[in-house]
Design brief:
The chain has a single domain, classed as TorD-like, CATH 1.10.3480.10. It is built from nine helices and no strands. The protein has helices at 3-16, 25-32, 36-39, 45-52, 57-68, 88-97, 110-122, 128-154, 158-189. The two termini are 31 Å apart.
Length: 190
């Protein structure tokens, strides 16, 4: 797994899963041991320190439910519910044609889109850089700024505010790298 994949997997999982989900336990251990900084490829030490502070998991769970829960969330994590967001059916079609297995959760969930970017990177075929670029360009970047800004504004814990800021910086860095690589590829073809 490369750095791009790791960033997307960690950030996507934190948005996709409730903090009390047992699948997050290994990640909480990394946070507790302060080991996230060692492998984080971006200069975000202050934000990572904020993420790695000790938080009461039940308090984080309440914040998660208030932000993204099923009943009247403060911030919808589904792209189709944002003005610039993608249609869920388009995202589902895009991911299934590339072989990504999907659950019953809507495919345009913000966290799932980040996990999908990781999955595409890990299962890259010859043209998958184009697929990742399309995922960012068509399905993630048009609405992520509004989404992350609203998460920052409505979060009750420093964790979710820091997660939104960390994700914003990471997405910008990854998009810059993706689109710079795309320009390079176009120049090579000319």
């Amino acid at each position: 797994m490369n750095e791009f994949s790791v960033l997307c997997r960690i950030l996507g999982t934190l948005f996709y899963r409730n903090p009390n989900d047992p699948a997050l336990q290994p990640l909480w251990e990394l946070f507790k041991e302060g080991k996230l900084n060692q492998n984080w490829p971006l200069e975000q030490d202050d934000l990572l320190a904020q993420l790695q502070r000790h938080y009461d998991r039940d308090e984080l769970s309440r914040d998660y439910q208030q932000l993204f829960g099923d009943e009247s969330p403060s911030v919808t994590p589904f792209g189709h519910q944002w003005p610039q967001g993608p249609a869920e059916s388009e995202v589902k079609n895009f991911l299934t044609t590339r072989g990504m297995p999907l659950s019953t959760t809507a495919a345009d969930h913000f966290g799932l889109l980040l996990i999908a970017a990781s999955w595409l990177e890990d299962h890259a075929a010859a043209d998958e850089n184009q697929a990742i670029t399309a995922l960012f360009d068509e399905f993630l970047l048009p609405w992520c700024g509004a989404f992350l800004g609203k998460v920052e504004a409505h979060a009750q814990t420093g964790f979710y505010r820091a997660l939104a800021m960390t994700t914003r910086g990471a997405l910008q860095a990854m998009a810059d790298e993706l689109f710079a690589g795309e320009e390079y590829d176009e120049d090579e073809e000319a």
